[in-house]
Design a protein that fits this description.
- The protein contains ten helices and twelve strands.
- It has 274 residues and is α+β, with helices and mostly antiparallel strands.
- The protein has two domains: 81 residues, Winged helix-like DNA-binding domain superfamily/Winged helix DNA-binding domain (Arc Repressor Mutant, subunit A); 179 residues, Chorismate lyase (3-Layer(aba) Sandwich), CATH 3.40.1410.
- The strands form four sheets. A six-stranded antiparallel β-sheet has the order 4-5-6-9-8-7. Strands 1-2 form a two-stranded antiparallel sheet. The protein has a two-stranded parallel sheet with strand order 3-10.
- A hairpin with a 6-residue loop joins strand 11 and strand 12.
- The chain is globular and about 65 Å long.
């Protein structure tokens, strides 16, 4: 059904209206039970034709976000408000992603040994021509996809685990089992748009906005042992940050609150969200 929604709106004004209204619904701005304006009113609000509005509404209905009843109008469904987003505090993202890996399931989409792409080779500090194991997975919670994960691991490390292992076990656990002592990581958060293959895997429209996270993991010697490129659905995953106002008068600024791992509850078992 979602596939049909993507096709009916792709590359058109209807897609833009669909994405805007979808965001309003998933963010809770249009709560379950809300009666939407009529097609003419929506067309005026968005500056498009009624045909365009009708296509966007059809896509929302196919995704189960609205219900259209002749004579009764169009209402946001109660099911739309029950789609809770997974939340992670930015200051403690790594341990929270570890826990997330234990509460979700993953499906392996692709697996191969390939020459490292230039950006990956540079990030992992691999020699020219270095090979890596490339794996692509989709992670789900309650059978709903929320992240698309592409990992690259140097070939000599990756040979310690098989495709079957990777399909069933979080990568961090496999790295530890291979004797890798993870020491530190660098990561960046940005935004991206869904390509056709990612859109299909995450059940979103082509061109939909996604949260993009890139992480490079290093061992104690400074060697890169994993490169992760993750894409998250913003309606099912969010990043929160707590800030304190610090400094003297005239020079005050916002500072993120860093929570010690001991404050996060019981130590997480080996594993990670990728």
């Amino acid at each position: 059904m979602v596939q049909a929604a993507r096709i009916s709106t792709e590359g058109s004004k209807a897609q833009r209206v669909y994405l805007l209204m979808r965001d309003e619904i998933t963010r809770g701005e249009l709560a379950g039970g809300t009666l939407l304006p009529g097609e003419m009113r929506l067309a005026e609000q968005h500056g498009v034709s009624r045909v365009t509005i009708r296509r966007a509404l059809d896509a929302l209905a196919q995704e189960g976000l609205i219900e259209r009843r002749p004579g009764s109008g169009t209402r946001v469904t109660d099911a739309s408000s029950q789609r809770a987003a997974i939340a992670a505090d930015f200051a403690t993202l790594m341990p929270q992603l570890v826990r997330m890996g234990q509460q979700t399931t993953a499906r392996l989409l692709a697996y191969a040994y390939v020459p490292a792409p230039p950006l990956v080779a540079e990030a992992l500090r691999l020699p020219e021509g270095g090979r890596v194991q490339r794996a692509v997975r989709v992670r789900k919670m309650d059978d709903a996809p929320f992240s698309h994960l592409t990992t690259h691991v140097p070939e000599d490390i990756a040979q310690n685990f098989s495709e079957t292992d990777l399909a069933a076990t979080p990568l961090f656990r496999l790295l530890e089992r291979a004797g890798i002592q993870v020491d530190h990581a660098s990561q960046s958060i940005s935004a991206s748009l869904a390509t056709p293959d990612v859109a299909e895997a995450l059940d979103v429209s082509v061109g939909a906005a996604l949260i993009s996270l890139t992480r490079v993991v290093f061992d104690a010697s400074g060697r890169g042992v994993e490169h992760l490129a993750a894409l998250y659905r913003p309606d099912r995953f969010r990043l929160d940050m707590t800030l304190n106002r610090v400094g003297n008068a005239g020079a005050r600024q916002w500072e993120p609150v860093l929570v010690p791992l001991t404050d996060l509850g019981p130590d997480p078992a080996p594993g990670a969200a990728e």
